[in-house]
């Protein structure tokens, strides 16, 4: 009976959707996190009679007879809506207002990209992420700095003892991609470029469609808890309905099996 296998695929799909929602809720307080949504596709159809096929009278069937075989999980899709901003007061914290990623260098020499602006400095004064990945291009903070400011266009300025005016220590640039949905999520608030992401453009914040920077603030995740809970209820009902369809199909098979007694 097709209903058994079809309903089973529905239950598996709803489990996958719940996994995505659970990850969204788990990261509600993760800096720069972008929530995901699951997309599904229907499986192949068994054609019992094709539309337009000849009928018994020599005419054509106006409609066919096809039975679907269930659903398959398709893709997960990031939602790049803006998260809320939280003022932190951290000297090196920056929030991205708009599109763009901060480019960082991984220990293996490859590059990754992040929306998490919780930055700090390492032992040499280089601007790094909270995991120690160096921000690219490099920004070097002098050891005798007194204050640090980051302008909306990414200019990092410091004041030093004995100097009346601030000096530029470097510039934070942002990177955008033709298709940011094609980025691969690595964990640790990092994304990696793939062929699907398209062309990479690095520029000054506020230029060429890139967002601005907000100093001493961080962008929270864009997860809407109430919305996720509503989706969870919908998934639960869909799961229960599919399980009920399996139960009904089993009862029908049991009835057919009892006919021979």
How is this structure best described in words?
- The protein is an alpha+beta fold.
- The chain folds into two domains: 2-80 and 223-258, no CATH class; 85-219, no CATH class.
- The protein has two helices and 20 strands.
- It has helices spanning 2-26, 225-258; strands at 36-42, 45-49, 65-68, 71-78, 85-87, 94-97, 101-105, 111-114, 119-121, 127-129, 134-135, 147-150, 155-159, 167-171, 174-177, 184-187, 190-192, 200-203, 212-215, 217-219.
- Strands 7, 8, 11, 15 and 18 form a five-stranded antiparallel β-sheet that branches. A three-stranded antiparallel β-sheet has the order 12-13-14, with no helix packed on it.
- β16 (184-187) and β17 (190-192) form a beta hairpin.
- α1 packs antiparallel against α2 (225-258).
- The longest helix is centred in the C-terminal third of the chain and has 34 residues, at 225-258.
- It is elongated and about 100 Å long.
- The two termini are 21 Å apart.
- The relative contact order is 0.20.
């Amino acid at each position: 009976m097709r209903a058994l296998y079809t309903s089973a695929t529905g239950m598996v799909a709803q489990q996958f959707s719940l996994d995505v929602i659970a990850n969204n809720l788990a990261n509600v307080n993760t800096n720069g996190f972008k929530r995901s949504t699951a997309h599904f596709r229907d499986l192949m159809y068994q054609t019992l009679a094709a539309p337009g096929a000849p009928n018994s009278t020599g005419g054509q069937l106006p409609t066919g007879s096809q039975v679907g075989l269930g659903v398959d999980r398709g893709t997960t899709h990031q939602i790049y809506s803006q998260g809320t901003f939280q003022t932190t007061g951290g000297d090196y914290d920056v929030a991205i207002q708009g599109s763009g990623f901060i480019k960082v260098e991984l220990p293996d020499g490859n590059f990754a990209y992040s929306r998490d602006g919780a930055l700090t400095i390492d032992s040499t004064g280089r601007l790094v992420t909270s995991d120690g990945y160096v921000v690219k291009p490099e920004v070097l903070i002098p050891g005798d700095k007194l204050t640090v400011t980051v302008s909306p266009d990414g200019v990092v300025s410091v004041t030093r003892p004995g100097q009346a005016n601030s000096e530029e220590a470097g510039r934070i640039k942002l990177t955008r991609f033709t298709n940011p949905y094609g980025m691969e999520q690595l964990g640790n608030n990092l994304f990696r470029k793939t062929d699907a992401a398209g062309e990479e453009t690095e520029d000054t914040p506020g230029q060429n469609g890139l967002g601005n920077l907000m100093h001493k603030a961080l962008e929270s995740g864009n997860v809407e808890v109430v919305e996720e809970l509503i989706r969870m209820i919908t998934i639960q009902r869909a799961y229960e309905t599919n399980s009920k369809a399996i139960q009904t199909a089993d009862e029908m098979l049991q009835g057919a099996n009892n006919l021979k007694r």
